[in-house]
Task: inverse folding
């Protein structure tokens, strides 16, 4: 079957309005997969079926017949794993539960990259989870690199409307030839639309999927002010519901080039999320980028209505108020 046709049910699932309200991943059941339109071929893989360990020896442990993966950080090492193959476009997802208590300096990453193949011209799509001191919330950072464009970081950071250490939540990346969408619990939080001005800086080479935990003391929490404190180790990040649904590199089938477009309801939900929970945006950072990167003039990225909420540093004007969790951990982002 052609890869483009394989992706169509996934695109329908994540780009059309969904009936359930957002809720922790652990409360989803198989029937929810069917309701969302996911085909049987999109079933989550066990570790042995789709992944391989990168580093960390005994700091990676398998549970539940290989359906759950625990990766940990201690004084010896971090740990991580990667998909066995590389993919050109697709839908990639994991349910993740982050370490609780004091986690300053800890970085948990769920991302796509081809840096092992293209050392100087690599592409990358990132979810990075940045730990914090006790009593302060984890933050989520997304980033996009294309063709080694690391000098032009496209970072955005957000708070969350739930505690990511209390339950599993679903984080996903949809990557097509013309756009990239990041999701949290089936809700889009960021869209990157390919423009002619981006050129090769739009990721366009096959990538593998990675998950890692490591010591980011030099930058992850308050610019490096707070470090990892190993008296709280091991720091354990839990992964399950690992979904790889894309075109394997080297496939003879047509490319995964199905167009993606969000529904009006999803676009409204994304706008509400960004207005309430986005704490930094590179498109609004005039210190790093006196002249905005070309795509920042696109509607929905550097839009005037969003820009007024940010300082010239790119930081939100009212960070504490913007991303504080609602009582009860709920959200009104129904799609």
Result:
């Amino acid at each position: 079957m052609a890869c483009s046709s394989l992706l169509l049910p996934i695109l329908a699932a994540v780009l059309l309005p969904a009936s359930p309200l957002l809720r922790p991943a652990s409360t989803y059941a198989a029937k929810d997969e069917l309701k969302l339109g996911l085909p049987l071929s999109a079933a989550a893989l066990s570790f042995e079926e789709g992944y391989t360990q990168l580093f960390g020896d005994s700091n990676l442990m398998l549970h539940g017949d290989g359906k759950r993966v625990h990766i940990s950080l201690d004084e010896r090492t971090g740990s991580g794993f990667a998909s066995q193959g590389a993919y050109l476009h697709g839908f990639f997802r994991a349910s993740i539960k982050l370490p609780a208590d004091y986690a300053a300096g800890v970085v948990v990453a769920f991302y796509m990259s081809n840096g092992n193949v293209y050392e100087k011209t690599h592409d990358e799509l990132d979810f990075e989870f940045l730990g914090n001191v006790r009593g302060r919330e984890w933050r989520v950072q997304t980033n996009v690199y294309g063709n080694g464009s690391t000098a032009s970081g496209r970072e955005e950071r957000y708070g969350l409307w739930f505690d990511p250490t209390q339950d599993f939540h679903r984080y996903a990346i949809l990557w097509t030839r013309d756009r990239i969408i990041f999701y949290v619990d089936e809700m889009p939080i960021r869209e990157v639309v390919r423009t002619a001005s981006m050129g090769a800086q739009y990721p366009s080479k096959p990538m593998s999927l990675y998950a890692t935990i490591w010591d980011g003391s030099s930058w992850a929490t308050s610019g490096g002010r707070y470090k990892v404190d190993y008296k709280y180790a091991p720091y354990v990040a839990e992964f399950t519901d690992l979904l790889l649904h894309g075109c394997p590199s080297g496939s003879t089938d047509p490319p995964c080039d199905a167009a993606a477009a969000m529904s009006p309801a999803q676009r409204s939900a994304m706008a509400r999320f960004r207005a309430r929970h986005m704490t930094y945006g590179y498109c609004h950072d005039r210190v790093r980028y006196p002249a905005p990167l070309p795509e920042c003039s696109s509607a929905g990225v550097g839009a005037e209505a969003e820009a007024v909420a940010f300082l010239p540093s790119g930081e939100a004007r009212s960070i504490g108020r913007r991303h504080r969790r609602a009582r009860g951990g709920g959200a009104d982002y129904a799609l």
In short: The domain at 3-259 is CATH 2.60.120.200 (Jelly Rolls).
